[in-house]
Amino acid sequence: MGMLLALVSALSYGLSDFLGGIASRRVGFARVALLGQLGGLLCTLVAAPLVSSGTPHVADLAWGALSGAGTGVAMTFLFRGIARGAMSVVVPVSAVGGVALPVLVGAAVLGERPAVLVWGGIALVLPALWLVADGSKGSGPGIGDRRAVADGLIASVGIAVQYLALAEATPASGIWPVTAGRVAAVVLVAVIAARFVVGAGQARQVRVDLMAGFSGVLAALALVAYLIATRTEFLAVAVVLSSLYPIVPVALGVWLLKERLRLGQIFGLVAALAATVMIAIA
To answer: Residue 89: phi, psi to the nearest 5?
Structure first.
C-alpha cells in the first residue's frame, strides 16, 4: 500500500507541475500559484477531519506553517521559471535541489553522516545543473534562458524548506500540518501576487483558473499521499518512488509541448534524476 501511495504522490506532483506550468504561461505565474494554494487549502480542509484523529499540537501546526511558506516560495518561482523557459528543464532542477539541500543541512547543522552513495549523488548535482543550464543553442523557445534555471534553483530552496519543516511534525498530528501549510502558503503567495497581478492586465480565463486550482489540489494530494506512505512503508522506498515525479512533466513537455533539448541537456537531466535517486535511496 505504501509503495502505491508513493507512486500516487509522484504522479500527482508531476501532473500538478505540468498543469500549473501550462496555466502560468496563459494567465501569469503569481495568479496560478495563488489559485493553486487556494485549491490545495480547500482540499485539505475537507480531508483533514476525515483522516486525522485527535487535535494537533501548536508546534505541529507551526512546523506545517513553515513548510507551507517553503511551498509558497517553491510554487511561485517554479511557475515563473516554467513561464520563462522549458518545463522539461525547470522541474528537474527544482527537484534535485529540493532533495540535495536537506541532506546538506542535516550534515552541516544536525551532525548527520550521510552514506557514501548520498555524497556521490550530491557530487552529480553541480555538473548536472551545468549541463541543463547550458542551453543557449537549444532549439526550443526559452530553453536557453538561464533565468528560468535560476528560478528552478530558488524553487528548490522552497521545496527543501517544505520537507525539512514538515518532517518535524509528529505522526499524531495527522495531515493538519499540511492544512496549516496551505494557509501559510496562501498568505505568502497572496502578498507576492498582489505585486505581480494588480495592474498587469492579464486575461482572466475561467478554464485556466480552474486548471490552476486543480493543480493545487493535485499538489496537496501528493503531499498527503507521501506523508501516509512514509508511515506505512520504508522511508527510503517512499522517498525514492515519490522523487520520480519530474519524469511526468519532462515526458509531457517533450511529447505534448514539443520542447526540444540539446544532447548535453538530456545528459544533464538524466544525471539530475540519477542524483535524486542516489540521494533518496541511501
So the answer is: -105, -50
Give every CB contact of residue 130 below 8 A, 6+ residues apart in sequence: 268
Query: How many C-beta atoms lie closer than 10 Å to residue 106's C-beta?
Result: 15
Could you identify the residue written with the cell 475537507? 46
Better pLDDT: 275 or 148: 148
pTM of the model: 0.83
Side-chain half-sphere exposure of 239, counting CA atoms within 13 A: 19
Q: How confident is the model at residue 181 (pLDDT cuts 50, 70, 90)?
A: very high
Sorted by sequence, the CB contacts under 8 Å of residue 201 that are 6+ apart come out as none
Q: Using CA of residue 229, residue 235, residue 238, residue 239, what is the dihedral sign? A: positive
235 in Cβ contact with 163 (< 8 Å): no
Contact 222, 36 (CB under 8 A): no
Helix (H) or strand (E) holding 189: helix 176-197
Taking the C-alpha atoms of residue 126 and residue 144, their distance in angstroms, rounded to an integer, is: 17
Quick one: cell of 108?
552541516
Are the beta carbons of 181 and 67 closer than 8 angstroms?
Answer: yes
Q: Residue 230 and residue 237: Cα distance in Å, rounded?
A: 8
Average pLDDT over residues 240-259: 83
Supply the pLDDT for residue 138. 45
